[in-house]
Q: What sequence folds into this?
């Protein structure tokens, strides 16, 4: 997906959460801003337990700092793009600028607890991703750990009920890897205005309705 296509088809607010990297967020954010839409800077980190956890950040600089920590803890292996896929960076005009040779598709050497601490230290909001699918916290660990995470991603109505029974805020998103997956699931965040501050205030206060609430 390139910035212009994503900006054209996305909702007003979209979180970019690439796997173990925030390297493309700045370019997408510039394009979205030109279209009067908002990017939430984010990342999906794969911990040493093979758990995927999302981090949403109030600004790109905090995301960059977390991305650097993630890069420092990736496994030291040779990445073969022919085998694992090409990892491409782009600018806001859809021009390819670089290839990433770090093994972004592998777990880092930090625990789930450590990753949550890092996200919080950098003023981010941690979110358990797709909890019952592969690499979800329930799938991998069989439970919701006693960590300071107040939000979890629901991919089914059954997960929605489970998350809320646990006293967590439920967030539904498309987890789109291709354009035709955009908006298949979504949440409505009751923001006062189209800004990151308003988004985060609404999110942490639970001002969220999922697709199944409508």
A:
């Amino acid at each position: 997906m390139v910035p212009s296509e994503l900006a054209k088809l996305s909702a007003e607010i979209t979180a970019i959460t690439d796997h173990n990297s925030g390297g493309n967020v700045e370019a997408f954010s510039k394009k979205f801003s030109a279209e009067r839409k908002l990017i939430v800077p984010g990342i999906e980190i794969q911990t040493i337990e093979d758990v995927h956890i999302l981090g949403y950040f109030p600004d790109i600089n905090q995301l960059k700092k977390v991305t650097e920590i993630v890069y420092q803890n990736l496994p030291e292996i040779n990445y073969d793009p022919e085998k694992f896929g090409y990892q491409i960076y782009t600018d806001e005009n859809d021009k390819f600028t670089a290839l990433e040779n770090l093994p972004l598709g592998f777990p880092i050497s930090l625990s789930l607890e450590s990753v949550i601490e890092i996200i919080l230290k950098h003023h981010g909001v941690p979110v358990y991703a797709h909890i019952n699918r592969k690499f979800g916290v329930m799938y991998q660990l069989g439970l919701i750990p006693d960590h300071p995470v107040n939000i979890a991603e629901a991919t089914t109505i059954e997960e929605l009920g489970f998350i809320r029974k646990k006293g967590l805020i439920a967030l539904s998103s498309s987890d789109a890897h291709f354009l035709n997956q955009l908006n298949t699931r979504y949440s409505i965040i009751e923001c006062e205005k189209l800004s990151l501050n308003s988004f985060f205030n609404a999110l942490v206060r639970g001002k969220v309705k999922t697709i199944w609430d409508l």
The mean pLDDT is 95. Residues 3-213 form a domain with the TIM Barrel fold (CATH 3.20.20.140).
